[in-house]
Each structure stands twice: as C-alpha cells, then as structure tokens.
Amino acid sequence: MSNKKNLRFETKQIHGGYHVDATGSRGIAIYPTAAYHFKSCDYAAKLFELSEGGNIYTRLHNPTTAAYEERVAALYNAVGALGVSSGMSSILLTVTALAQAGENIVASPFLYGGTYNQFRISLRKLGIEVRIAKSEKVEDFETLIDENTKMIYAESMGNPTCDVPDLQALGELAKRKDVPFVVDNTFGAAGFLCNPFDWGANIVVDSSTKWINGHGTAMGGIIVDGGNYNWANGKFPQIDGPSEGYHGLNLYEAFGNAAFIVKCRVDGLRDFGCCPSPFDAYLMLIGLEALSLRVKHQVESTRKLAEYCRQHPKVERVSYVGFEDHAGYKNAQKYYRYGSSSVFTIELKGDLDSTVRFVEALQLAGNMTMIGDSITVVTHPASTTHKQLSEADLKAAGVTPTLLRISLGLENVEDIIEDFEQAFAAAE
Ligand SMILES: Cc1ncc(COP(=O)(O)O)c(C=O)c1O
Q1: Residue whose C-alpha is closest to residue 210's, from 291, 267, 117, 269
Q2: CA 219 to ligand 1 centroid distance, Å
Q3: Could you confirm whether domain 9-288 is CATH 3.30.420.40?
Q4: Is residue 373 classed exposed, middle or buried when 0-12, 13-18 and 19+ CB atoms within 10 A define those classes?
Q5: DSSP assignment, residue 55?
Q6: What's the topology of domain 292-426?
Q7: Distance CA 235, CA 251 (A)
Q8: Ligand 1 mutation pick, 111, 207, 209, 217, max ligand atoms within 8 A of CB
Q9: Model confidence over 351-402: pLDDT tens digits?
Q10: 103 lines ligand 1 (CB under 6 A)
Q11: Does the C-beta of 407 come closer than 6 Å to ligand 1?
C-alpha cells in the first residue's frame, strides 16, 4: 500500500494489504499451500519460538490470508487482525483467549442466535459463565461485573432486531471497570457503517461471511485488535505473564500492544485450528474491494423497500432502524453512517399459511438464512432460525408466525418491490 498516511476507507479497501511481489502481479496471489520451506533448521527454530516472524504452516499463517488481515486492520485503523474460518470461531477464539473456567463475561441481551447458544451452552460447558444483561442500559451491565469479569460483549447492531447499544457509554464503562470491550461488528461492514474503535471498543469480531465477502461465496470470520487495551494491568497473566505454550515467553513484552491478536493466532489457531482457506481469504479480499459501493446501495434500497412495506395494506408492522419509531433509531443515527444497515423485519397481516405462501411466491428474493449477500434474502424465522424454540421462547424473542427478516442485496430495488407486489397477490 502507498506510504501515504490517512488514506480514506474507499482507497484502503482496494490498496490495503497489497505489496508488490517478485512477479509484479497486481492481483494478490492465492497460495494454496499447507507448509513452507524452511531455509535452515535454525531459521525454523526461530519461527517456532516466535523470535522471528514468518510462515510456519497455513493453520497459523498464509500470505493470502495475511493480505486480507492487513486490509481489514487498515480499514479499522487497528494494530492487527486475524482471519478465521467463521464468525462463530472469531467469537470463540476471542472469548477463550481472555476468559477461562471460573471466570465470566458480561453480554448484551441483543445477540445473534448462534452467539447466544455458544454463550449459553458451549461456554458454560467450558466453565465460562456468560452473564446476559437485563437490558441494554449501562447500569444493567454494570451490576453484573465483578473481579472475575473478563470482557463486556455487545453487537454494534443486534441480529435480527437491529437494536443499537450505546457504544460510547459501554466503552466508558469498560474503561472504568478496566475490562476489554468486545464488539461484534458484523452489521458495521468492516467499519464502513460503524467503527466501534471510535467509541471505546478494544476488540472487534466480525462474521466476514456477510458484508465483507458480500457475495455469499465463503464462510469466514475476523478478529481485529484495536491495540488500545492495557494488558499489563495484572488481569490477564495469559498475555502479560509466562506463556505455557512458548517456554515462558511473555507475549505482552514481546509484542506490545499487538499481544492479544498474536495470542489468538499462536495459541488460538494453533490449538483450535479454525483457520480460513487461502482461497476463501482471497474471496474476502475481492469482496472488500467494492464494499463501500455495495453497502451504500444496499442501505439506500433498504429504506425504499421499508417505505414501500410501511404503506402496504398487507403489512402489519415494519421494524426498520432508520425509522424514528424504532428503539435503536437514536443510537443508529449516532453510531452508523446513514443511520441504518441493510436489514429490517416486517410482520405480515394474515397467518402462518399466508406468510409461507408469500415467501414461496417470491421469484427474485431468496428464501434463505443469510444477510449481507448480493442477493436480497427473505428469511422466515418461525420455520428456520427459530424453528426449535418453544412457544414461550418464540414469544420472548418476538418471533411471530408472520415475521420476516429482510436483507437487501444489489438488485435494482424497483425489481424487488415488484417481486414483493406479485408475491403479496399470490399469497391471497
Ligand atoms: C451478528 C453475527 N455474528 C456472528 C455470526 C456468525 O457468523 P458465521 O455464520 O460466519 O459463523 C452471525 C451469523 O449470521 C451474525 O449475524
């Protein structure tokens, strides 16, 4: 990338992570290799003891993945990033890097269902307690924090409700309590719509399966390190203390403010193994190049479709964070460029059968469970993501038989509106 400082987002999404190589190729190469030739045993030993940087094995490093990580870190103005195999693994690696059995994390109540299950079931089995705040009010987080709390966790925009927490207030709370603030910024589109580091976050996790990839062609996740947490405060001996896996090496002394992201790589990827494939990292790089253009188009289309739905006689309710009646409206205006993302929900008039008829009559919008794709997606939670829930849990989650989650793609929105119109007629 150019040495020029302060490049803008649109420039960094194309130039970030690019370095001229020996071939002069302007395209970033895909390195489909598991292993790397060591020029000597002494050099290999240095790589393995982390006294020298370089490629060891693709579970830990790969040049294509490194370009993708550098690009994302540049977009966030962060000290480093780590590509992993899914959004779920970005969360798992982050939590297990910071919390161990007997410790706890404090999380927002507005979480993606998969995250909620990881927290409620799998982390509990590992002995890590997840305390879910009663609401998004800062005081409801604060009362749950004690000396064993290892992070505050929130989504910058909750999936699927699109609630937006007061990121700045949570960042201030985390600072006051001296615990890291971790934000799932999947909806924030790699920092284009929302950059949680501007508001006090220390670590970002992201399902790059969504807006970063942008075309629904690969699974991925990424962890981003803001480099702005003081790991030397005595709370994280696994970072500022002798490392069990590296002959007592102190990661903080060796890597300074990038110690957390190094730990996720050298312990997390080494032990849990959830690395991305180089080809998928390449797809993420390609996806990123037009991210700002894609997302702007999607956000504009979302408003138009939400407005169309709001006046439609077959629609009971529209929940769109860009409308003033949405609970997240004020915070979205503050934290999200354009005050919105490209997801909203509607409830149809009618019943389960007429809703199913509507979904199945759609010809362009896909009946899938996906967001941030180039294709407009309509998801029916009652028959998909929330199918296993009891009546009571469905009610608590606000999932009614006629609820639909919509994620706008890159089509001309007028065609999507016409698709909805014919599906409404067919659902009669
Ligand atoms: C906000 C959020 N976080 C994490 C995930 C999990 O990501 P992945 O499906 O890439 O594992 C999702 C998936 O939809 C999500 O919406």
Answers
A1: 291
A2: 10
A3: no
A4: buried
A5: -
A6: Aspartate Aminotransferase, domain 1 (3.90.1150)
A7: 14
A8: 207
A9: 999 999 999 999 999 999 999 999 999 999 888 877 777 787 777 777 899 9
A10: no
A11: no
> What pTM was computed for the model?
0.97
CA 208 to ligand 1 center in whole angstroms: 8
**Same fold flag, 9-288 and 292-426:** no
From the CB of 276, is ligand 1 less than 6 Å away? no
The answer to whether 348 and 316 are in contact (CB under 8 A) is yes
Residue 167: burial class (beta carbons within 10 Å; 0-12, 13-18, 19+): buried
How does DSSP assign 351-416, residue by residue? Answer: -HHHHHHHHHH-SSSEESS-SS-SS-EEE-GGGTTTTTS-HHHHHHTT--TTEEEEE--SS-HHHH
The residue ranges of every structural domain in the chain are 9-288, 292-426
Nearest ligand 1 atom to alpha carbon 111? 1
Residue 366 beta carbon below 6 angstroms from any ligand 1 atom: no
Nearest CA owner, ligand 1 atom 9: 87
Which helix H or strand E contains 316, and what residues bound it? strand 315-319
Q: Is 90 in the pocket of ligand 1 (CB under 6 A)?
A: no
Q: Where are the alpha helices (DSSP H) in 58-186?
A: 63-76, 87-98, 113-117, 123-125, 138-142, 167-177
Tell me if 288 sits within 8 A of 13, measured CB to CB.
yes
Atom of ligand 1 nearest to the CA of 155: 1
Cα-Cα-Cα-Cα torsion 322, 141, 101, 85, nearest 10 degrees, comes to 10
Q: Is 87 in the pocket of ligand 1 (CB under 6 A)?
A: yes
For 34-73, the pLDDT digits (tens) are 999 999 999 999 999 999 999 999 999 999 999 999 999 9
Q: Which two tokens stand for residue 198?
A: 């501007």
Ligand 1 centroid, distance to 203 Cα (angstroms): 16
**Among 86, 88, 153, 222, residue to substitute to test ligand 1 (most atoms within 8 Å of Cβ):** 88
